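User: Modeling request: complex.
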Amino acid sequence: MSRSARETSYVDYVTARREHLRRVAYALCGDWHRADDLLQTALVKLYVAWPRVRRTGSEDAYVRRILVRASIDESRRPWRRERPTDTLPDRPAAEPTSPEDRSELFAALQALPPQQRATVVLRHWLGLSVADTAAELGISEGTVKSHTSRGLAALRGTLEPSETG
Amino acid sequence: MPDIAEQLDAAIGIAPGPAPALDRTIAEGRRALGRRRLSVAIGAVATAVVIGGTAWAVSPGDGGSSRSDAPGFGSATSAAPTPAPTSPTPNDLLPELPDWPGQDAVMLDEAGGLLVKPGWTVTEQIDEINGPGTLAVEVVRGERRQWFLFGKAMTISSLHAPSEGYATFDEWVDVNGPLIEGKRGGGQGDNAGGWPGEPRDDLVRFIPRFISSARGLEPVSSDVTVVDQVFNPDLGESFAPSSRTGAAEVRKGDQSWYVVARRPADFIAVATDVAERRYGITDLAGFIAFAQERYAEGGGGLL
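Assistant: Request completed. Predicted assembly structure:
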């Protein structure tokens, strides 16, 4: 693959997947500007690793891993540190998701500890298996299950009851 | 009623505006690739670049800091490359092979078949890493490990892998794989941060000690002029001890180069116009400072 071919295939992939990946970054960090920064970081790393990543067909997984790690790293910086709460106010949510509910759910998602948030995003938004989520996050499957359980419990006030059990 | 995925999807919403321009991403990617190539720690890697049958070891650490004639493989039996990625190939499955000079554990024969020195085992092999005719190979022998990238006219190798700059074979291949089809030398405009230098024997040489007490570099031929030179410039231990080095600005015809030299007979030239255009270098002192920086960063330095 010549350099131009390398860039062509890279651009094709990024063009096709960038909007989706922006949303993944946003789901992880909660801010569109930071999401674009995170994605930029991830796509630059992807550029360097492109021949290998493309060969293995794991482009999305590679970018997600970078996004998750970068977002968690950022959250650990003192000026970024969040103060997650263990409990969210319970609220009956029988109505279909409205813009207001959507923002509440999103706020609740952002209030989760970073790894719990990433687990919920990968498992319950993107639909990854427990094993794949564990592999992408570099944690055990048991930890994925416990994070998922706690994360959904924390979101329960903003998710529709029939779906959360 | 929406399931959790749908609710989350709605909550996350869509981006309020267009994504940043992709050109910026690509430009940063190119710069990152260039930086990555240069991030190998001093003395930690032994990299050999083989072009046109001539080997050039760019790190003194491997004991191969001079060029050598290409080995002959006329009677060697080749092991054909297998589709990538492959499982390790026990070396004892390969036919008996003749040995060859140098530390390189593998070579390609004229037909492109992989030759492996006895005692070495191929642990990873990736065909067409950068297009047809290219190949990446990792080989081990006991504690020793070597990485190779073969192209049509160039081989890049790390003879003492893993280096401090590259922890894994995949990482090394990511960075160096795209290089193996590129032309070397200063004039090709490698936007990804490639090496600016090229081996040149036709410009200067060290003044032979048995002929003169003078020290330094002298023109190889009457059509070459040494415009300026610094004897024993400190280019860093990854290049060579200071006492074994030289640097010069030379002119031949209507072209000029900066040259760094290492005894006994390694000369790396960078065209002055390329040095100015790409790096803002306008004199020999500036070039020496640039070379010091490159070799301090390790890796290939100017090559």
